[in-house]
Specification:
The structure is a single chain. This protein is mainly α. The protein has 2 domains: about 5-85, no CATH class; about 90-124. The chain is built from 4 helices and 2 strands, in the order ββαααα. It has helices at about 35-50, 55-65, 75-85, 95-124; strands spanning about 5, 15. It has a two-stranded antiparallel ribbon with strand order 1-2. Helix 1 (about 35-50) runs antiparallel to helix 2 (about 55-65).
């Protein structure tokens, strides 16, 4: 007799009976997940949360999965943490870059001004 189950990853309702299912023992995962995709997503996130794989490895594994699921809050929080790309840190603060650029421009203007003065002197 099948029972209505709720997937622990996406919350989808599905029907499953361990006795009736054709591959009962091989498909025991159906007691918690509506699909192999949800099972795989849960396993990747679980390995990441338990520090068995890095964020980058988890992201690479999840990219191969069908991610068009409506993940439950408990899963979604880790899913977002893994999938959001971090911006690389800027090596130099922007202010330093601006100051360097300003100094270069100022130097160039001074050089051009001196050059103009010399040309004027020569003409006179």
């Amino acid at each position: 007799m099948s029972k209505i189950k709720t997937c622990i990853v996406c919350g989808k309702k599905y029907e499953y009976c361990g006795h009736c299912d054709k591959g009962g023992q091989e498909n025991r995962w159906k007691t918690n997940y509506c699909s192999e995709n949800c099972r795989d997503i849960f396993n990747v996130i679980s390995r990441y949360v338990n520090n068995h794989i890095s964020k980058e490895d988890a992201r690479n594994e999840l990219i191969d999965k069908d991610l068009n699921i409506n993940a439950k809050d408990s899963i979604a929080k880790y899913f977002e943490e893994i999938m959001i790309c971090e911006q690389p840190e800027i090596e130099e603060p922007i202010e330093e870059i601006l100051n360097e650029t300003e100094d270069k421009i100022t130097s160039q203007v001074e050089i051009e001004s001196k050059s103009k003065r010399r040309r004027r002197r020569i003409k006179e």
